[in-house]
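User: Modeling request: complex.
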Amino acid sequence: MTSLASLKSKQVRLIKRPIGVATADVWQFTEEAVADPGPGGIVVKTLALSIDPAMRGWMNEGKSYIPPVELGAVMRAGGIGRVVESHNDNYKEGDIVIGGLDVQEYASFPEKSIKRSGITKVDLRAGSETQWLNVLGMPGMTGYFGLMDVGQPNLTKQGETVVVSGAAGAVGQTVGQLAKIKGCRVVGIAGGKEKCDWVVKELGFDACIDYKASPSSVKAGLKQHCPEGVDVYFDNVGGEILDTVLTRINKKARIIICGAISQYNNTTAVNGPKNYLSLLVNRARMEGIVVFDYADRYHLAVTEMAGYLRDGKMKSKEDVVTGIEKFPEALNMLFEGKNFGKLVLRVASA
Amino acid sequence: MTSLASLKSKQVRLIKRPIGVATADVWQFTEEAVADPGPGGIVVKTLALSIDPAMRGWMNEGKSYIPPVELGAVMRAGGIGRVVESHNDNYKEGDIVIGGLDVQEYASFPEKSIKRSGITKVDLRAGSETQWLNVLGMPGMTGYFGLMDVGQPNLTKQGETVVVSGAAGAVGQTVGQLAKIKGCRVVGIAGGKEKCDWVVKELGFDACIDYKASPSSVKAGLKQHCPEGVDVYFDNVGGEILDTVLTRINKKARIIICGAISQYNNTTAVNGPKNYLSLLVNRARMEGIVVFDYADRYHLAVTEMAGYLRDGKMKSKEDVVTGIEKFPEALNMLFEGKNFGKLVLRVASA
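Assistant: Request completed. Predicted assembly structure:
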């Protein structure tokens, strides 16, 4: 058993609410002794953290689907880690777990907070550490239940057209590959030729539109690649891309609102979808997804997706930044579209 | 049988596409002999026409749920009339019918266009002529299927809160009264004290918010009258009211997009709902309704609603403007919120 007394843990704390892009001064780096988790508790050493667009929302004041991170608190983050101390019969030293580890080197969980933090043992034979933060983790679960439960692609009428933005991102790669596996026509939207090429050549999407290519590339691309219109649109970005897709949806189309990365750093109001009346004309639906609602079915989706990974039907790509001190810049990479694949912060190698 | 040769019919034709509010110069008044409907056809004398917000959309160029009215054509309108000549065994002189009569004194239907124009015999014992354009007509059907099929109020969990805008209008009065009958808590939004009082005192809504009372009256009113949030919002208006309701919706709320009367005369882009990410936070849904999709079930809804009218459980109010020459100003009344109840244009008394 590791001697807790000797363990120090670095943390990244939120000390100021950002306006727009999160600048360096909203963060504070601290180092503290690891707290004793007490009877029934465990201590987890963080191996890698998931860097997600949703984090930007957690930093704002105000009501959302979960409370904001309190000022002074360690920044919230999901991650994968190794149990280094256990006073709980359900966990033993060496177990690999995922859950709410937050941006710190060690997370100490009193017994009552183990479940609340979503700590779950995982099997590295099903996927690598970083895949457990990607296809087998929250992004994968979001893509899975967003597409299947909210988007409801018609699986008997093969060939429905699914469009997904942020196609090279964590959620996007899951959504697109899963839709292909289920028999849909899949068109991605991503930023830059490199990402688009990868999405088509490696992931097998039918096409991918480079929204950075020109101001009209999304409009032209949808016309070219979705000749029969759009049945399901999985939206990770909001803004102008959402507006453009709304002009191409089919009757009874389903739009899954998963995020709006284009709007998260706005200092003014969000741009609402000005073409929303297309929902009326097309008797279409726009619906939000929050992955936590599906927690009791994660295990089913993980089993299915691990099978696809094993059989080579699904691939995953992670973009790994190393070092807890890189957290602030890693987060901002997301909003500049600089990451290629699921963005992961490697905190410790083992 | 009326002598067709002697019959002249006045028409109102669309000769120009309006930009913003429809001005007098977009209309042309003509008078022509009534066309012979030919074998199997019928001639219908228009008694009253339904004046609807959707008409403004039909006047615009471009793709919608039905093609725009062609320039030079008689303006499209639904109405109620009396068969004055029939060469068809299914209709006899004196039958009362509803359907696409258009803005003219007499409508001549060749056999093949009777069905296409939605001509349906009606029974004046179930409702008056104007009620057949209101609760028993398109607005009533829109309210019925929009609320029940798209809004899906939870009828086992009594007391869900339904909010409806345009509450004193044709669709709004149906939605609100029906939701009350089904056991929901109902809050209307309407313009002016007189309409709000009527909605509460005559129609039995639990409350009605006067959006004209002050710039913050909708926000304050929702807070006061929907202490447990909004489960179903039936939107007839769009714009700021939609945005404000979005801040008060409950988890898994359903928003029915029926229209956006605040936006139809815009000369610039529609204002998209800038709070649409509330759909994400609340895992809520926004979905369009087009009444024509439910044509095969109209008869069921009419039977149910006629029963409510007969039993006094449902009331209806029509605002009647008389004279075909008043059509242009009647249409504009809608967008100024000047009508009180379903707006009807009386074209002939019998």
